[in-house]
Amino acid sequence: MFGVTTSDDYRPVAWMGRYPVDVTTILVGGHIVCAVIACIFTAIPGLTGTLDYFYYDSARIWNGVQLWRLASYAFVHAPSALLWFAVEMYMLFVFGREVERFIGQRAYIALYLILLLAPATMLTTWGLWQRSGLAGSPALHFGIFVAFATIYPRVELLLRIMAKWFALILAGIYTLQLVAYHAWTDLAVVWTSIAAAFVFIELRGAGPELVWWDKFRSLARPRPKLHIV
Q1: Residue 155 burial by CB count (10 A; 0-12/13-18/19+): exposed, middle or buried?
Q2: Helical spans, DSSP H, in 44-162
Q3: Would 5 be classed as within a structural domain?
């Protein structure tokens, strides 16, 4: 447990014996089940093409109105990337539970839905000019870690490196890798997730104090009208 603050909205969804089951645990279990199903479908020749119905494809959104792809893409986990998937689930379980505990269940569900739908919505707009596709949830769950680092920027993680520096280092590595391969849509997805997570936490007043952010909020806030009597 990294923090000591618990939201009034945080409570277990269910109990397994003496162990509480929260939203994060359910999400991890759901992703694992989907990964196992993907492995089974890939192993059976007649079912391999089934996964194609769940990838995000901007052309299928615009031409076929297959709107479920806006959310289903994140639950398609390729068997060839199971090692990274295991890292994803670890990050989601460890850091997601802390975010859920801090901001509460309803806000956490809203954050997860934003991180799920915002990249797909952005790619749908992008798809008007260039067809784009997406599968898997690395950017989504990296967004969860960014949310954690925004809440607890000074928490020391591996090698006593603070969470905020870990987030910046990983974001930099992620960016350089995608730039090197000219993966512009993937780069847009990653930074959409980063921005969405950071802004969501900051809007709830849970992030670090930033002078430029406070100035931006003051400018965006409607000014009171003065009436001369």
Answers
A1: middle
A2: 58-64, 69-72, 82-103, 105-126, 138-151
A3: no
Q: In terms of residue numbers, what domain contains 95?
A: 14-220
pLDDT exceeds cutoff 70 at 20: yes
Q: Which helix (H) or strand (E) holds 21?
A: strand 19-21
Q: CATH number of the domain that 74 lies in? A: 1.20.1540.10
Residue range 45-62, pLDDT digits in tens: 888 888 999 999 999 999
In the block, residue with structure tokens 């603050």: 5
> Alpha-carbon distance 163 to 200, whole Å?
18
3-state secondary structure of 61: helix
4 in a structural domain: no
pTM given for the model: 0.87
Say if 170 falls within a structural domain.
yes
Q: Please choose, from the candidates 24, 3, 5, the residue with its C-alpha nearest in 3D space to the C-alpha of residue 14.
A: 24
Domain count, the chain: 1
